[in-house]
Design brief:
Shape: elongated
Helix content: 40-55%
Structural class: mainly alpha
Radius of gyration: 17 Å
Order of helices and strands: H
Largest sheet: none
Number of helices: 1
Length: 60
């Protein structure tokens, strides 16, 4: 049986309010860090799934 964490549905990226008039540098950095963290999570899941598919072909 393959580990479910590689194939579990990932959380959706939260939509942050974009108020261009009040956004400061800290909020912009936080927004970029959040986007980077979600890209990293998706890449990790994709790499895990690819490795498992190579190790156990036809099991997914």
């Amino acid at each position: 049986m393959l580990p479910a964490e590689c194939f579990a549905k990932a959380a959706k990226e939260p939509k942050l309010a974009e108020d261009k008039d009040t956004e400061d540098d800290g909020a912009a950095r936080d927004r970029e860090a959040l986007k980077k963290a979600f890209r990293y999570e998706r890449a990790k899941r994709r790499a895990c799934a690819e490795r498992l598919n190579v190790l156990f072909p036809g099991k997914t």
